[in-house]
Design goal:
By secondary structure, the protein is an all-alpha fold. It contains seven helices and two strands, in the order ααααααββα. The longest helix has about 60 residues. This is Neuronal membrane glycoprotein M6-b.
């Protein structure tokens, strides 16, 4: 029983499994927090500044589809890791064509993972900027003069960041209910969502780097297994008595 468990454990790609858990956890948190954060941003722009950004609504669907694709990629890489680990590798990659196919698969997934790493780094940069902006908004809300409603939260000096259709009076938040909407209902919650999304984005990037290391190792294992097979076949040619033990490899 112990030998069977040990043999089963040697077939598990532990490094790829850890990377898959990190990837799925990061992607799940990223999808949920970005969807919620973008929804709060849409409501904030609509109810406080009275304009709508249609492209943010399109981003919500992109987040869902992209997260599903990342999860599918993670499970495909986990399956590839299982095929290139332990005794499974020795059975699957016996034939020359199987070894070539395995090396090509590892190379293709390495390219895809490498590109996705850069995509997530760009997303991280976007999230850093977004989180910084919402942190500035929260600092404005935290000023004592704004808390006691003695002054307005004025964005007129940033009118170049708003669409031309936005009126100057809409860039000044003076009423108590508008300040509550802007600060408590939207900015405070959205900032927390974007901070979580930024942390999850870092986790996904780490998992992709981990995947790259695992794929490089798997590629080397298949290549080394091919050399081992060639050496074994050479031994069979020079010493036919070893042919009887071939099934052990």
């Amino acid at each position: 029983m112990g030998d069977a468990c040990q043999a089963c454990l040697t077939r598990i790609p532990h490094a790829t499994l850890i990377a898959t858990i990190m990837c799925c956890l990061g992607v799940g948190v990223f999808c949920g927090t970005m969807y919620r954060g973008s929804a709060l941003s849409i409501l904030m722009f609509d109810e406080v500044f009275h304009f709508r950004l249609i492209w943010i609504e399109a981003l919500q669907m992109i987040f869902i589809v992209g997260s599903a694709c990342m999860a599918a990629l993670g499970f495909m890489l986990l399956c590839l890791g299982c095929l290139t680990t332990g005794a499974t590798r020795q059975k699957v990659y016996r034939a020359w064509r199987a070894r070539v196919g395995g090396r090509i698969s590892c190379a293709v997934f390495m390219i895809i993972t490498y590109i996705l790493t850069f995509v997530w780094i760009v997303l991280l940069g976007f999230l850093v900027i977004t989180t910084f902006l919402f942190t500035i908004f929260w600092k404005l809300c935290s000023k004592p003069k704004n808390i006691d409603l003695s002054t307005c939260i004025d964005f007129t000096q940033f009118d170049f960041m708003f669409p031309s259709s936005v009126k100057q009076e809409d860039m000044r938040i003076c009423e108590a209910h508008k300040i509550k909407l802007f600060c408590k209902d939207y900015v405070e919650k959205a900032e927390f969502m974007f901070i979580l999304a930024m942390v999850s984005c870092i986790l996904v990037i780490l998992s992709l780097v981990h995947y790259l290391m695992c794929l490089s190792a798997n590629y080397a294992h298949i290549r080394d297994h091919e050399k081992f097979q060639e050496l074994q076949e050479l031994q069979y040619l020079t010493n036919p008595d070893l042919h009887a033990s071939k099934d052990r490899f």
